[in-house]
Amino acid sequence: MNPFDEEERGRGVRPELIDGVRTAAIALQDEDSDFDALIESIGDARFVLLGEATHGTHEFYKARARLTRRLVAEQGFSAVAVEADWPDALRLNQYLHGEGSDREALHAFDNFERFPRWMWRNAEVLELVEWLRAHNAAQGPDGLQVGFYGLDLYSLHASMREVVRYLEQRDPGAAERARHRYACFDRFGPEPQSYGHATSYGFEDPCEAEVIETLLELRRRKVEHGTREADALFYAQQNARLAIDAEAYYRTMYSGRNESWNLRDTHMADTADALSEYLSQRHGKPARMVIWAHNSHLGDARATQMGDQGELNLGQLLRERHGKETFNLGFTTYTGTVIAAREWDEPGRNRRVKPGMPGSYEALFHQVGLPGFLLRMEDLGEAGAGLRERRLERAIGVIYAPHSERYSHYFYADLPAQFDAVIHYDVTSALQPLDADAGHEEEDAADTWPFGI
User: Fold this and answer.
1) pLDDT (tens digit, 9 = 90+) per residue, 155-189?
2) Which of 79, 119, 136, 316 could form a disulfide linkage to 145, CB 3.0–4.6 angstroms apart?
């Protein structure tokens, strides 16, 4: 029997554990000074990972934006890297630097077309982007400017188009060779899942050799370092490398969750490292980076049920590679509302989040009795040691299934080993999408479904 079954049936948490967490907790007042202790803990870390328990909560985005602004303005961070596709984020990056054709931030979000659009096309990110652009303008061309980058690998076709576009402007012959190689994917149509299905089951030969050869040719190109042309080459090489990893991802997604998940998170970690190395060389000093992604990507998988099942993640990889230069912040909530879809590729709706389950970290933090608090794991005393016992932790992605919440959204974790610190907001609200087809009210079934009692 699982040792937490009794708690899941409703047994209370030990009072001394609640008191220990309450003593260590730093109450949040919705002010910039809320994060003074957090910045102290971050210290000289170069990779600051800012998680989220959902992909659609206003308070999480607002707190991450507030902390990001302070890290950029006060600590010299030069990159914001997010759980988004590389070519989509680069359009925003151009806007931050006053480059490209977009004159308004809203238009710079137009590349975010893939589901779930609300994850980045929202008012909270829009406000941050405007602040980052103003910050860069104030720094001037000789100052340390901040960029906005995507770490994910879903943009197979978009990244291949960007590689060809880069080469067309500089080497028509190389562009034609790249176009010919990438045409290997044409017979599968526009959906990369079709490519993955056909090649994983042996119906068609894969295009692995073609994407690898294109990257190798790009890597043979040389430009003077420190110029815009060097940036353009780096961006093109990253798109070409993304095509390699995306080809492998879609080819393995039918062979099991672990392999494709691990490939995706390894790609994100490798992209973060490549970006850090490039920016460090460009600026002549170690680059510091803020990373936004879901808790499931940033909380060290070794401390969770995910790791027990053979999955790794971005947070684990960066900790293994960079040790104390990595700082990991998670977020939790007890109840409220969230933007999430009912099914894949459906519009995001304003959904009601059920209260945290008995036996979960969310339920424990609710009993602390504070609307919001910061918990630094270094502050946990003897009374708070019980927090190291594995408990349920909730993860809501772009789909929320409240009727199967225990099995769809909870996993076991050792929170103090998973994160360096956690921010808990007891009642949270849905973020504000920019699109008219997202965010409409949609009442979920009553908490008593399906028993009606």
Assistant:
1) 999 999 999 999 999 999 999 999 999 999 999 99
2) 136
